[in-house]
Each structure stands twice: as structure tokens, then as C-alpha cells.
Design a protein that fits this description.
This protein is mainly beta and 259 residues long. Helix content is 11%, strand content 35%. It contains four helices and 14 strands. A hairpin with a 6-residue loop joins strand 9 and strand 10. It is found in: Secreted.
């Protein structure tokens, strides 16, 4: 019966309210070093601090997804009602967690944000806490998906890019690049984390198309003019497109009124 009701909710409600926010149980610890997550496997570097105000997390491989989970947003709250608030905290994935004892390792700021007012130091003393978590859409108001040209890029053919401000509840699983006005697309491969590259970059101004998945659904998104012909390493370019799709996971936890 519960599964049937969950299925009906998928049919009757919008993607923003449907049964698409699965609730999971795990544990979370924290990094004592402030820069540990900004220099993580996703490759964001210092730019990570601009993704969620320093509320960052390393996630286990099943959530890191070989880098496809980089930039994903989660709401996490600890189960200790004496120390922790019911709201929890929102985090962005910037690293992989190789510690099998916990699902997440949070930045100190994010870990303390789970606590009730005045209880931050008390939760830090615990070191590890039981948590509930769910995937949530990333929100970047008035901010398009951005493409940063990495310093390793070398004209005329080698191009490495990093994706920033990926909104919604989505994953980018493929990228093609072509000269503006051309239909001769070359695929890019994931180098690591949020960084993609190709040794066959065309000359001239460049356009991109992204394969974006959101749970059961997937689609192409076309950014028609992104990099100018004189693109430069270290510069962030606006893609001109926003991604705000919401994933549907088909989970069994339909009651999230307490969230």
C-alpha cells in the first residue's frame, strides 16, 4: 500500500513536491582543517567556498559517483535532538570520502551548523554523529552554469574546463564541444571531479552541449556561445544557460512533512 501511495504521489504532484527526496540514514564526521574540502577531489580549489558559503562535504563513492556527484547538494541533520536542530544544514559535495565509517565528512562550519544555538562546540566534541540526509536542488539565484578554463589548457587543441554553479538536482554525464556555427562536435572526457578535457578542441569561439540527467530523466542542454576565440586560462565564462531540473528517485519515503 505504501508503495502504491508513493507511486500515486509521483503522478499527481509536481516534481518539486513529488516523492523525489529520498531520506537516508548514515553518519557524519568533520574535517578539522578548513581547507581540506576546498582542495578536494572535485578540483574546485578556493572556488568551492563560493558554492555554499563554506558548507562543504566529502561523500562516499556511491554519492561521489566518479565525479558526477561533484557540486550536488544535500540537506543533513543529526539525530541528537538535544544538541541538533531539526533543520540541519545544506552542503555541497566537493570531495570523496574514503572513510567507510561515515557517509559524509563535513567542513567544521557545516558540522557546527547542524547544532542548536550555543551547542556548536558540544557537537564538535562528539566527532561523529548519526544523521539523516536527502538530496536537494542546488540554488544559485540569477547565476547561470559557468565554465572555468583550467590553467592546464594549451592552445590550440588542449582544453580543460571546470563546471561551476550547476543548479537543480542534476548530474552532467557528457559534454561535447564545437566551434560556434559548426555541427562538427568533439566529445570531452571527465578528467577528474568537475574537470573535463579534450585534446581536440576546435579553433575559434566555442559552444558546448551537455547531457544532463535528473533521476529517471535526461536531456541535452545547448550552450550556443560560451568561450570567445581568444579564451584565456583561469577565466570563468558564463554559459548563458541555467540548469534547474529536479530529479525523481522513486523512493519509498513519501512523508517528508517534518523536513
Amino acid at each position: 500500500m505504501a508503495l502504491f501511495i508513493c507511486f500515486l504521489s509521483l503522478l499527481l504532484f509536481s516534481s518539486a513536491t513529488a516523492c523525489d527526496r529520498c531520506l537516508y540514514q548514515s553518519k557524519a564526521a568533520y574535517f578539522s582543517k578548513a581547507n581540506a574540502l576546498s582542495s578536494g577531489a572535485c578540483g574546485y580549489g578556493s572556488l568551492a567556498l563560493g558554492l555554499s558559503g563554506g558548507h562543504l562535504a566529502a561523500a562516499v563513492s556511491s554519492l561521489y559517483k566518479d565525479g558526477a556527484g561533484c557540486g550536488a547538494c544535500f540537506q543533513i541533520r543529526c539525530n541528537n535532538s538535544t544538541l541538533c536542530s531539526s533543520k540541519g544544514t545544506n552542503v555541497t559535495i566537493t570531495d570523496i570520502n574514503h572513510n567507510n565509517q561515515t557517509g559524509f565528512v563535513l567542513s567544521t562550519r557545516a558540522f557546527m551548523a547542524m547544532a542548536n544555538h550555543g551547542m556548536g562546540q558540544h557537537i564538535l566534541k562528539l566527532g561523529t554523529v548519526e544523521v539523516e540526509y536527502k538530496r536537494i536542488p542546488c540554488e544559485y539565484k540569477n547565476q547561470n552554469l559557468a565554465v572555468r578554463v583550467e590553467e592546464s589548457s594549451q592552445k590550440p587543441n588542449y582544453l580543460a574546463i571546470k563546471l561551476l554553479y550547476q543548479g537543480g538536482q542534476t548530474e552532467i554525464v557528457a559534454i561535447d564541444v564545437a566551434q560556434v556555427g559548426s555541427s562538427n562536435w568533439n566529445f570531452m572526457k571527465r578528467n577528474h571531479g568537475a574537470v573535463w578535457d579534450t585534446s581536440r578542441a576546435p579553433n575559434g569561439a566555442l559552444q558546448f552541449r551537455f547531457v544532463v540527467t535528473s533521476g529517471y530523466d535526461g536531456k541535452w542542454i545547448w550552450a550556443k556561445t560560451v568561450l570567445p576565440a581568444d579564451w584565456k586560462s583561469g577565466v570563468v565564462y558564463d554559459s548563458g544557460v541555467q540548469i534547474n531540473d529536479i530529479a525523481k528517485e522513486g523512493c519509498f519515503h513519501c512523508d517528508y512533512s517534518h523536513w
